[in-house]
Amino acid sequence: MREIFRAACLAVATLLLPVAGTAAAAGPPPAPPALSPTQGPGTVAALALPRPTGPLAVGRDTLHLVDQHRRDPWVPTVARELMVDIYYPARPATGTPARYATAEEIRAYLAALGLADALPVQALADTRIASRAGALPLPGRRPLVLLSPGLGVGRRSLTGLAEDLASRGLVAATVDHAYESVATVFPGGRTLTCVACDRMRTDADFAAASRGRAADLSFVLDSLTGAHPAWRDAAVIDPARVAAVGHSLGGSAAASLLLHDRRVRAGVDLDGTLGEPVGAGGFGGRAFLLFGATADHPGATPAAGDGAAKNPAAAAGDGASRGGGAVKADGAAQEDDDPTWAQAWAHLGPPRLWLDVDGADHFSFTDDPVLADQIPLPAAVPPAPAPAGALTGRQALAITRAYVGAFVERWLCGRAQPLLDAPSRAFPQVRVVGRDPQPGPGAGITRRR
Fold first, then answer.
1. How far is CA 21 from CA 17, 260, 392, in A?
2. How many CA atoms lie within 13 A of 352 on its CB side?
3. Is residue 350 a contact partner of residue 289, using CB atoms and an 8 Å limit?
4. Are the C-beta atoms of residues 20 and 377 closer than 8 Å to each other?
5. Residue 179, SS3?
6. Separation in Å, CA 342 to CA 52, 203, 346, 369, 400
7. Residue 356 three-state SS
8. Distance, CA of 239 to CA of 413 (rounded, Å)
9. How is residue 305 annotated by DSSP?
10. Where do the DSSP E strands lie in 42-95?
11. How far apart are the first and last CA of the chain?
12. How far apart are CA 142 and CA 86, in angstroms?
């Protein structure tokens, strides 16, 4: 049986293995390095995510949602709960600075890997971000992008992407799924831990988790666009323009959501093994982007734009790779037996796009490499040589922001996006594995009447 969950709960590996100038390769972390007597985990300059690239200020509100009609799949004695951060275009200089994460979440996160005493808990929790809590929203009707993180990671890992989408004029909702992150603080002083990390063992477990997250995202959509919305400013959301984006298990959930909820018009999978098969007919003409790390797709080569993935049998990394990265001793990616991306590609149909990123690893699509690059190595740990061609955290986040933003804007807003139609001089690391012919004028307008 494929080890598709072997390292799924180690999604902070890049954060825990900072290497000067690069994000470290994904994989199980080594024993925590010993700090010198004069150097502690608190001795680090203030950390920050890069400013969003759009012109608009960003606000953030946080919601606690409870689905009284569903039991939690991991703890069936309680109703399903979610924590949701909503990022939105805001009036400048309103609200107060939003926090990145709680110290409790970060401490538990690092403690799960035996590194709470080796890395700066408070500095990580206090990472400076652009959002302002409770800021006044700008008027208008805006597309909604739902974002689901990887197993074990938590919604904070997609903050940099969510803020960027909001700065471009969209509403972005990042979701923490109860008992599926190492630590998430819920109301009432409760910190829920990753029960799912211990209980997922089979492909069937993974498929069920993907469907469960899709149900979570549908519930978030109901809660934001229904007759009695949970968010006070929900009137700014256009329910006819919704996309789903996710990393790792969250990427699988994005695909599952398109399979089960016709309200969602486009989806993006960031390097995630697909838990549910995509059958004939794909997503019924709705757009989907497979956006992964080249290292997870050994043997894949760029397509010529004819819609066919080149060497598709070798084009998808196994679940262990997407859950944490399977790497040979010499640094080369292992061959694997996960055919989910190639199988999905054969059935998706237009509009579809498959891109891989040279120098990326599984976590390059999250905030973690950006933070890793800012944390100095303890004195006792010599800097490791950067792998040839490895992306810096800033490069990785810039690529993720640019391509995800362009894709959702094309299919939710009808805006021309030349970045998606040809190789980019700005981002030469991005290669086309498969794509359909370029859309004609007006493509991407997906309003439902």
1. 12, 42, 6
2. 26
3. no
4. yes
5. coil
6. 33, 17, 6, 28, 21
7. strand
8. 13
9. S
10. 57-71, 79-90
11. 46
12. 13
CA angle (417 as vertex; 416, 421 as ends), nearest 5: 120
How far is the CA of 395 from the CAs of 128, 341, 428, in angstroms?
18, 25, 11
Whether residue 277 has a cis bond before it, omega within 30° of 0: no
Task: Per residue of the chain (449 residues), give pLDDT as tens.
Answer: 233 333 343 443 444 444 333 333 333 333 333 222 223 444 577 999 999 999 999 999 999 999 999 999 999 999 999 999 999 999 999 999 999 999 999 998 888 867 777 788 999 999 999 999 999 999 999 999 999 999 999 999 999 999 999 999 999 999 999 999 999 999 998 999 999 999 999 999 999 999 999 999 999 999 999 999 999 999 999 999 999 999 999 999 999 999 999 999 999 999 999 999 999 889 999 999 999 999 887 655 434 344 554 433 223 223 333 333 333 333 334 454 468 999 899 999 899 999 999 999 999 999 999 998 998 866 555 666 667 789 999 999 999 999 999 999 999 999 999 999 999 999 999 999 999 876 554 555 443 33
**Bond from prior residue into 351 cis (ω within 30 degrees of 0):** yes
* Secondary structure class of 341 (helix, strand, coil): helix
Tokens 């074990």 belong to residue: 152
Half-sphere exposure of 323 (CA within 13 A, CB side): 22
Q: What values do phi and psi take at 186, rounded to 5?
A: -110, 165
